[in-house]
Design goal:
The chain has helices at 25-35, 37-55, 90-126, 128-142, 146-156, 161-187, 191-198, 203-214, 217-239, 251-259, 268-296; strands at residues 3-9, 12-17. It is mainly α. It has one domain (37-296): MetI-like fold. It has a two-stranded antiparallel ribbon. Helix 3 (90-126) crosses helix 8 (203-214). It is elongated.
């Protein structure tokens, strides 16, 4: 078999063998499943939750509809997840909650990433007093656990969904500041940055037009993990009756309402929404961990 040599970088020679230009699609898919099983599993779970959140609410009943004659029905063919103390269908509420929780989680991750990455690139690129002030402010925020900080902010504000999003986003902003700043410190020393400066670009244009796009990879990977943490944090706040309030169909609200039913034997009112929290967070973390491992290698 003949070979050809191709120069990719100075001092690096890659030998290419003549043969099929690319593997077949089933072969590539099998290879991905074999080498990245957690990634594939996470993507499948996330796709299932996305489909459930998008189309599910159109095929289930009203999550707020009560039926006093059908309270605390065990899971059955008619009520897959049973009913709660008000006769509300737990499956319908869980499906509607999937749309709300995933939307909130993704929104929090995007807001925190945009704000945190913006501050991070300013801090890392300009350095000096700007960097010192921003890093000390970040250290103060990191002194509080994210959940505690979000709890304090929500308690100080009106308990609405938008305020929950704002509070939890603020709690995760320092995470993205540090991620982006660390990458910017590496990027600003590279030759393309000096070339952009010599071409007459202003410092702000270099920072946001050239450095920031090349520094976002860690933040994008981190956003996957933060989405899972955000879903968990929002549910935890709702469980403590801080933030989203009953009778809203939200996983944390449902777990909080159903926790008191376990002692009397109605385990399904909290088990199923709690399981959906676990599986959804697990899906985001499987994806984030796999991509994070690739980014760091």
């Amino acid at each position: 078999m003949s070979t050809t040599e191709k120069d990719l970088r100075p001092g690096l020679i890659v030998t290419e063998f003549d043969g099929p230009e690319e593997q077949s699609r089933p072969t590539r898919l099998f290879g991905l499943v074999r080498h990245k099983p957690l990634l594939v599993f996470g993507v499948v779970l996330l796709a299932a939750f996305a489909a459930l959140a998008i189309v599910g609410p159109f095929f289930v009943g009203d999550p707020l509809s009560t039926d006093p004659s059908n309270t605390f029905l065990a899971p059955s063919a008619e009520h897959w997840f049973g009913t709660d103390r008000f006769g509300r269908d737990v499956f319908a509420r869980s499906v509607h909650a999937a749309r709300l929780d995933l939307t909130i989680g993704i929104t929090i991750a995007l807001v925190a990433m945009v704000v945190g990455s913006t501050i991070g690139v300013i801090s890392g690129y300009f350095g000096g007093a700007t960097d010192e002030v921003m890093m000390r402010f970040t250290d103060v925020m990191l002194a509080f656990p994210g959940f505690v900080l979000a709890l304090i902010i929500v308690a100080a504000l009106e308990e609405t969904t938008i305020n929950v999003i704002i509070a939890v986003s603020i709690a995760f902003v320092p995470y993205f500041i540090r991620l982006t700043r660390a990458q910017v410190l590496k990027e600003r020393e590279l030759e393309y940055v000096e070339g952009a400066r010599l071409a007459g670009n202003s410092s702000w244009r270099v920072a946001f037009r050239h450095v920031l796009p090349n520094s976002l990879a860690p933040a994008v990977v981190g956003a996957t993990l933060v989405t899972g943490y955000a879903v968990l944090t929002v549910a935890g706040l709702a469980f403590l009756s801080v933030g989203i309030q009953p009778p809203t169909a939200e996983w944390g609200v449902m777990v909080g309402e159903g926790a008191k039913d376990i002692i009397t034997g109605e385990w399904w009112t909290s088990l199923f929404p709690g399981a959906m929290i676990v599986v959804a967070v697990m899906a985001f973390h499987f994806i984030g961990d796999e991509f994070g491992g690739e980014a760091s290698s």
